[in-house]
Amino acid sequence: MVYARRLGGRSYTFQVSGMLWRNSLVMRDRETGSLWSHVTGEGLCGPMAGEVLEPVPVTTVFWFAWSSFYPNTRVVE
């Protein structure tokens, strides 16, 4: 799952915390130090506990297939 990094008019920067919760990654935001579930997008502890990030719809495709249908696509790193 992918989540929007904006919440309540503010942008957050996420990084891997090195922790697991229910056998899945836990993210940490740099702005508040809150921990977030990678699976649910919910703030687990810290100032943002209980907040929920908005899911962003994504699709996984093979690059060769995508680029043949959308040759003008630019890759942003």
Topology:
Elements: E1 2-3, E2 6-7, E3 10-11, E4 14-21, E5 24-29, E6 35-37, E7 43-45, E8 55-56, H1 63-69
Antiparallel strand pairs: 1-8, 2-3, 4-5, 5-6, 6-7
Q: What is this structure, in a nutshell?
A:
The chain is mainly β and 77 residues long. 9% of the residues lie in helices and 36% in strands.
Helical amount among residues, as a percent range? under 10%
In total, the number of strands is 8
Order of helices and strands: EEEEEEEEH
Integer count of domains: 1
Helix- and strand-based class? mainly beta
- Globular, elongated, flat, extended or rod-shaped: what is the shape? elongated
Strand % is 35-45%
Main beta sheet: strand number and arrangement?
Answer: 4 strands, antiparallel
Distance between the termini: 19 Å
Structure characterization notes:
The protein has one domain (2-69). A hairpin with a 2-residue loop joins strand 4 (14-21) and strand 5. The protein has one helix and eight strands. The chain has one helix at 63-69, and strands at 2-3, 6-7, 10-11, 14-21, 24-29, 35-37, 43-45, 55-56. 13% of the residues are buried. The protein is elongated and about 45 Å long. The protein is mainly beta and 77 residues long. The longest helix has 7 residues, at 63-69.
